[in-house]
Amino acid sequence: MSTQSKQKTTVVPLASSADVAVAPHTQPMSGAEIVIQALVDQGVDTVFGYPGGAVLPIYDAIFKQDKVKHILVRHEQGAGHAAEGYARSSGKVGVVLVTSGPGATNVVTALTDALMDSIPMVCFTGQVPTHLIGTDAFQEADTTGITRACTKHNYLVKDVNDLANIIHEAFHVARSGRPGPVVIDLPKDIQFAPGTYVPAEQANLQMYQPQVNPDMTRIEAAVEMMATAKKPVFYTGGGVINAGPEASEYLTALVRATGFPITSTLMGLGAFPASDPQWLGMLGMHGTYEANWAMHDCDVMICIGARFDDRVTGKLDKFSPHSKKIHIDIDSSSINKNVRVDLPIVADAGKATKALLDVWQKKKCTADAPALQSWWKQIQAWRDIKCLSYTQSSAVIKPQYALERLNAHLQKSGRDVFITTEVGQHQMWAAQFLPFDKPNRWLTSGGLGTMGYGLPAGIGAQIANPDALVIDVAGEASILMNIQEMSTAVQFKLPVKIFILNNQWMGMVRQWQELLHGERYSHSYTDSLPDFVKLAEAYGGIGLRATTPDELDDVIAQMMTTDKVTIVDVRVCQSENCFPMIPSGKGHNEMILSADASQFDKKLV
Amino acid sequence: MARKKNSPVPAPSQSVYGADPVKQQAAYHTLSILVNNEPGVLARVVGLFSGRGYNIESLTVAETDTVNNLSRITVICSGTPMVIEQIKNLLSKLVPVHRVTDLTLFGPHVERELALIKVVGAGDKRIEALRTADIFRAKVVDSTLESFVFEVTGTSEKIDAFINLMRPLGLADVNRTGAAAISRGTHID
Hints:
The complex is a heterodimer of chains A (605) and B (189).
Chain A (H helix, E strand, L loop, with lengths): L2 H5 L21 E2 H11 L4 E4 L6 H8 L5 E4 L3 H15 L3 E5 L3 H5 L1 H9 L4 E7 L15 H5 L5 E4 L3 H16 L5 E7 H5 L1 E2 L20 H12 L4 E5 L1 H5 L2 H14 L3 E3 L14 E4 L6 H9 L2 E5 L5 H4 L10 E6 L13 E4 L2 H14 L6 H15 L15 H15 L3 E5 L3 H9 L8 E2 L10 H11 L4 E7 H4 L5 H7 L5 E6 L4 H10 L15 H8 L2 E5 L2 H13 L4 E6 L34
Parallel strand pairs in A: 2-3, 2-4, 4-5, 5-7, 6-7, 9-10, 9-12, 10-11, 12-13, 13-14, 15-16, 15-17, 17-18, 18-20, 19-20
Antiparallel strand pairs in A: 1-8
Helix pairs in contact in A: 2-3, 2-8, 4-6, 4-19, 10-15, 12-15, 13-16, 17-18, 17-24
Chain B lengths: L26 E10 L4 H11 L3 E11 L4 E10 L1 H13 L3 E6 H4 L2 E12 L3 H12 L3 E5 L3 E8 L1 H11 L4 E6 L3 E4 L6
Antiparallel strand pairs in B: 1-3, 1-4, 2-3, 5-7, 5-8, 5-9, 6-7
């Protein structure tokens, strides 16, 4: 068993002093220096953090080197989301460094967010010295206990000689299999203690070896199901993005080779180009009419890297009742969790998609052309409903119009664009109205739905992609949840654009109250909002405002040219609702397209 | 151990947010989980059950392999087939878990429990307790003039039966270990 060797990390002198950032290889390193050396070994260039008593030795080690850059946030939650944005936009592991107690508890939301959305992250939390653990010491919290349920794995380091191997294993666990956050709780005395470093290539990683290669007999069975399908649909998710850019290429090739329609979850947008005619748009609660109906009526569903979330399936017993389902997922516990599938394949989305494509081509498979043609005809009829249409206004800015204009400017600019969002109506509109042709360009809090995600995530994305245009499509309520990170953006000269669709309401809450709670708008209106233009200026950024449709284009054009963090306060229609919508507890075939009472039973129970 | 029957299916919900799915038939499964003997591993396993609302009927854990530093956790849990499958998948996903064996699905296996049972009494009841203990092959591990402590091993049902017989004879206290289980034959769990 591997466990024995894991306990006894072998003493290995460092190979070349040129690679050693901190200490000469003949000397034992302090725990803090081991942390830095392990980060360098793991290829980490940026750490998001906030200092405090229990991590001061690590901050001291950071001070003495220049290989790892530290981004000082204004709140630990911001550090977590920034690391998520960095990870999601770069494909690398995001790294967070916070202190004990409140530092650790503040990062819990971001850890949970990363767990739900499968974002690779390693978070170092300081801890009180080993001999004080359990004494209710100043700034002590049971960090491993608190984060057990919201991390993929966590460690409490008790021996400095285990530290290097733990860090390497943490990076391995965070990025392999289904990615996720890993916490390393590091008592202060361990950070001071001298210990032996183990280079990354000598680390023992046997403990965690998830299955990534698909079972080929199942791949062949899947291809057979696809080749005989009459009404097939691809349903893909964030797993394709996590499997790396080549997974998106294989997926695109496979979808084009088969000629099947494809829809995707919120997390999977960009894996298949939205400009392609086979693209149906996003599915789920606020997905398109054609995507949801195709899911409902299909006879073969090919699910790749998605997990049948309740926001996707709607009511389970009405979910795609007549289809055979193929489910490819790297996490076996996602299979048969919510929906019973006919052909489960546990594998990496990229490897499985490549295998499907290889077998499809090798066997010279073709789709059932006449059946597929009539399926596309049916889909066209659904598309003709034009479910995303809205009533234009010349007096007030419709949020959909604002995003359409934003998109027009983005397309015209030809720049590489990364969109982050907060959570709510604006997030759904952004998913509906902003098309993504490449993976890793869409950063949103899907699983946890964390308001306040977008600005720090945008900061992380901007750091990973300094030349790109990063835009946080925000709501005025969400943005206030992590507004302090404006200061981070100013300090590190990050020209993130915050495009606020300001309707003065917690829009999605208001929408549910209107549709489902008898128009009783309980605490969803925000009185006393700040003046966002002045707020931006107070932080040292740029503030812009558009209040009428005529002003919109000029303001967006101005935003595109700013070189500092910029808030655009777009005053939008207050009563606009986000449609189409599948009400909770309804099926894909029960979408509502407008708030028209005749279409929808508003009766509360 | 007394295992309850499932509660009847509740009336369908009228909520606009939709009803809970219809309850399926739940069954008991005995899982044998091989884990690294490291701090927090039991909390991880137990937390997985409590965090997702699954039931643990019995739990036994001890180090079983000192050379490789491994512990075995035996869990008896109840759930629908989908829930049991989910539990096994989630357990397998935990980093310090090496192997999860569903002994109920595997088939022939031995399940044993140990109980310590204190009976307080005098006269005929005391003699009857001793006689019954003999039938159950329970050992007397402590004795005073007014009390016995019996050690009994066997299936959970046998221990249930012994406890029930001791009730009128002065049953005072019970402690039991929960089931330990292993497959029959050459199979390695």
